[in-house]
Amino acid sequence: MSLERRHDREFVRTFFTSPTAVEGEDDSAKMIRRAAQLRGMQAPDVWVPDNEDATAPSMRDEGAENIISVISEHGAEFPGEIHPRIVWHRDSPATRYQCFEHLLEIADPEKDAIQHIDGFVIPEVGDIDDWKKADEFITIVETKHGLAEGSLAMSVIIESAEAELALADLREEMGKPSNNLERLFLLVDGEVDYTKDMRAITPTGGLPPWEELRHNTSRGASAAGLIAIDGPYDDIRNIEGYHERMTDNQAKGMLGIWSLTPGQVKEANESPLPPKTGSWLLDVNGREVELDAEDGRYVYDGDDVTLETTGDDRYRLLVGGDERELDGDELTEELLDLTSYIPSLNDIVDSMEEFEAAKEAGKGAIAMERSATLLVDGVEVEISNDRMWDEATYQAAQTPITLFQDVYENRPDQHEELEELYGEDVVDRAMVVG
User: Where's the Malate synthase H C-terminal domain (predicted)?
Assistant: First the structure.
């Protein structure tokens, strides 16, 4: 059983960093000043004024001042949470001392910023004892400034093998009277520094996919009642690649990702939400192709699958290089094996409502039918299957609904866009079901 979540957000889709001080500009705070005024789908769930890697070392003292200035002015209106990233390093006492100085400065209530700050992001952590050092610094700062103990969250960036191994210690360490690690909020992967720490090499010089790291971080977050966030995707124009990364992450339970631009924020905010309309996919040589919806039918328009009638209830189906002679029942079964369905928000709500009604009537399980008319090379084929729904199926379907509810409750600035996307009726039902 995972630990109880201790923060307002159950889900974080977007972790957006922006440099706190830009050298050579009339207004060195211009990047965080712009970020503080983002709204709607371009505003992240968590905004991270980045006073570490995104800001030059010579500008970090000014960056701390800019954090105070911008957040004191705009923090009250910012729709997401605010978690500045400050310097830290497991092997550098001098860097950790600079962290402490910046914490003290930014958290001073007389400077009118801390009341709008939800926590801090600590990079370059090592083993669990190093996490405790950062936690103790925050506890001291809270005490110094008269803030409630544990009121400031702490998120850490997993950028070393030491930090990855520390994930296994979290459940045991959180809640011990000798620390305040309950303040932990996000576990964020930092694949660039992790690659350096692991001394990994690839032929192209690019980053390895680090699927194990992402799985371990997601597992550690689930076990400790925290939220897992993937690292930055720096090919900012490759939207398709960004979507593929998010889809892969979501299958691991990692529903949040680092965003580097407002455009990436918008994509990442929308990605984990259920689609507006359902869609059928056809497996073509290991590649899933979305079928076009036309007049109540789902149409395959490509050259890799062909279908023709060869006689009364006889068909020839060619998929890639595999040709098969089939009767009508065999064709239906073959196409059922090759197709899959992505449910819309309305589909999920309908199914959950139907199961809730059945459960109310004393049924423990019911069959849900899904049917469609496929059109391939002018040949229509009706497919239909039944999926058995029980309590476990219901609970699994509830995750995207719970995410939607969390977003709607915590991001009123996105209400209008969500209602335009799904329709008010679907939104109202989604907020009640479950």
Answer: 280-395
Q: How far apart are CA 30 and CA 19, in angstroms?
A: 9
Distance between CA atoms of 114 and 111, rounded to whole angstroms?
A: 8
Residues of the chain with CATH 3.20.20.60: 14-271
14-271 architecture in CATH? Answer: Alpha-Beta Barrel (3.20)
CATH 1.20.58.1560 residue ranges for the chain: 399-431
CB atoms within 10 A of CB 61: 15
Strands (E) located in 190-312: 227-230, 256-259, 279-284, 287-290, 292-294, 297-300, 305-311
- Which residues have CB under 8 Å from 48's CB, separation 6+? 15, 16, 17, 18, 83, 84, 85, 121
Buried b (16+ CB within 10 A) or exposed e, 278-296: bebbbebeeeebebeeeee
Q: What are phi and psi of 12, to 5 degrees?
A: -130, 120
Per-residue pLDDT of 384-399, as tens digits, reads: 988 899 999 999 999 9
Burial class (CB in 10 A: 0-12, 13-18, 19+), 380: exposed
Q: Which residues in the chain land under pLDDT 50?
A: 1-2
User: Is residue 390 flagged as an active site residue?
Assistant: yes
In this structure, whether the domain defined by 399-431 belongs to CATH 3.40.190.10 is answered with no
Residue found by looking up tokens 């809270």 in the block: 142
pLDDT tens per residue across span 131-148: 999 999 999 999 999 999
3-state secondary structure at position 5: coil
- The pLDDT value recorded for residue 7 is 83
Q: How far is CA 407 from CA 161, 220, 419, 431, in A?
A: 33, 23, 13, 10
Q: What is the pLDDT of residue 4?
A: 58
| Residues 158/226, Cβ–Cβ less than 8 Å | no
